[in-house]
Amino acid sequence: MVKMISKATVIVAALMTSQAALAESVKFDTTLGSFTVELNSEKAPVSVANFLRYVEDGSYVGTQFHRVIPGFMAQGGGFDKDMLKKASYGPIKNEGNNGLSNDTATIAMARTNNPDSATRQFYINLNNNGFLNANQRPPGYAVFGKVTQGFEVIQEMATRPTKALPNGMRDIPVEPIIITKATLIK
């Protein structure tokens, strides 16, 4: 009986450890404050691995939230403070059909009309945006985590005045909201 309990304890501990490994987080410091995103590598392994490449290579630092639409989302990671496009790794496979929904405070990969075009840009949902899910708009936009701390910083972004550029880009905060640090938390 003692051996069975100790084996069960070992198995439970191993499962808890592997779940903890899946629940990596990234803390972002911005010019408006900090927020933390918990990543879901179990349901979105390709998106999480891709996102972590940019965190680990340091290239999210100095980028801005370049598209903020109140009641919708805040998008960042692709442009520096001067709105110059940052270099990207190759595009990834869309994981929009992974069972995660574009709910309030979730983070997802931004992409073009090509489903498999996501690179470095991400967005954080300010509201439930079910119309972006695969079941409503195939193939959907891949959610890969959620904000677990500091969501009020994202909400504050949506209160800031925005502008449009002559090239057609819109909803750009007049005062750039810059990522000053991105830290992986295991």
How would you sum up this structure in a few lines?
By secondary structure, the protein is α+β, with helices and mostly antiparallel strands. It has helices at residues 2-22, 45-56, 151-157; strands at 25-30, 33-39, 63-69, 73-80, 106-109, 122-125, 143-149, 162-163, 172-173, 179-185. The protein is globular.
Descriptive account of the structure:
The protein is an alpha+beta fold. The protein has a single domain (25-185), classed as Cyclophilin (Beta Barrel). The chain is 22% helix and 29% strand. The protein is built from three helices and ten strands, in the order αββαβββββαβββ. The protein has an eight-stranded antiparallel sheet with strand order 3-4-6-5-7-2-1-10. Strand 3 and strand 4 form a beta hairpin. The longest helix is centred in the N-terminal third of the chain and has 21 residues, at 2-22. Residues 1-22 have low confidence and may be disordered. Belongs to the cyclophilin-type PPIase family. PPIases accelerate the folding of proteins. It catalyzes the cis-trans isomerization of proline imidic peptide bonds in oligopeptides. Its EC number is 5.2.1.8. Keywords: Isomerase, Rotamase, Signal. GO terms for molecular function: peptidyl-prolyl cis-trans isomerase activity.
Q: Kindly report how far apart the N and C termini lie.
A: 35 Å
> Percent of residues in beta strands?
25-35%
The CATH topology is: Cyclophilin
Number of domains: 1
CATH C-level: Mainly Beta
How confident is the prediction overall: mean pLDDT?
91
The H/E string reads HEEHEEEEEHEEE
Q: Can you tell me the residue ranges where pLDDT is under 50 for at least 5 consecutive residues?
A: 1-22
The share of residues in helices is 10-25%
Largest sheet: 8 strands, antiparallel
Number of helices: 3
Shape: globular
Q: Largest beta sheet: what is the strand line-up?
A: 3-4-6-5-7-2-1-10
**CATH architecture annotation name:** Beta Barrel
CATH superfamily: Cyclophilin-like
Structural class: alpha+beta
Strand count: 10
